[in-house]
Amino acid sequence: MENTHAAVWDGLVVNARLATLAGDAGYGLVEDGALGWKDGRITYAGPRSRLPGAARAAEVVDADGRLLTPGLVDCHTHLVFGGDRAGEFEQRLQGASYEQIARAGGGIVSTVRATRAADEETLLAQSLPRARALLADGVTTVEIKSGYGLDLEGERRMLRVARRLGEVLGLQVRTTFLGAHALPPEFARSADAYIDAVCDWLPRLHGEGLVDAVDAFCERIGFDAAQTRRVFEAARTLGLPVKLHADQLSDGGGAALVAGFGGLSADHVEHTSAAGVRAMADAGTVAVLLPGAFHVLRETTLPPLEAFRAQGVAMAVATDCNPGTSPLQSLRLAMSLACTHFRLTPEEALRGTTVNGARALGLADRGRLQPGLRADLVLWNAEQPAELAYWLGGGLRAASWIGGRRAGD
Ligand code: NIG
Ligand code: FE
User: Fold this and answer.
1) At 401, phi and psi to the nearest 5?
2) For a pocket test of ligand 1, which of 77, 78, 223, 321 has the largest count of ligand atoms closer than 8 A to its C-beta?
3) Each residue's pLDDT tens digit, 376-397
4) Is 0.70 topped by the overall pTM?
5) Quick check: CB of 98 below 6 Å from ligand 1?
């Protein structure tokens, strides 16, 4: 009797094609599969024919042959912000570059003005539709960065809103402190003094439970290597993992720098050198590819994809959802852009938004369909895994479960 009782699960999907992502290559496909869960964790993932005889569940879903994947992990977003920058989009179409706009006082700093002007409820209301859109297209875990407050109160407000989005939507949210995103006007011409302030805010925000990781923008229009290093040292003192906006517009040695700190990820990496790739391989630092920004800025320098593959650097794919370089609200569309612009295979793109996306956040408990991992699942109106990167838009998601609970309906 005891055994029968133990086999009463919270949920069971049958008649599904599972893309388990188990193993180091391939989709890990299981035809006519079944997947059960209890208390938020997967209890069984495999062929229906081998389902334990006594298995019963409170909720049973017949997938009708459709595809079931791990919930998607969007490991790099800036989705909490005030206002928009559609005007800059128009300026760029008329020939102005992202760097020119930034140097003229627009760019990130213009979103800082709008974000500072928004109170917490306004910021939450403006950010909710973006988080909802990601969820609606299959995201179950999302990383959200600060970086448009650039003062203690503004950064705190952004991080609080990020946490609240998780609570309101039932989404898994990981927060990243990106105080070193741009120089706020009150610190103009004293970047080192601003970095002092960032290093002072970090332990306070961390003490309030608002910070899961630390990031910086290491670039000629951002912060230099020495300033980035100081922020990372402050993170290390607190035991917080680091990641970096590295080598996006130029090779500033950012990838090697973050790898030297054992960083979780180097993000963008279009201009990363061979030495940077080697350092990432040695440290196990994930390359986070952000094809939305590449597309919007009409970049032409591709990340060193062959070197990443040859040296076994794991590649993740994320939206970089932000008002300037990547107003992208679908991780599936990021997968599609990664295939089209970067020639990723659809399998690499799916691995990049599941296993490797989770790795880029330091999360080993999700990203595959395996017993013991979180029951973060998406059922798709599709049969082939390649369809996830193939269809541009179109409401492909049929249902999501986050920690075993239905979400996004
Ligand atoms: O990832 N490069 C820095 N940060 C963002 C852009 C933010 C913005 O322009 O508002 C990025 O591309
Ligand atoms: Fe970014």
Assistant:
1) -125, 135
2) 78
3) 999 999 999 999 999 999 989 9
4) yes
5) no
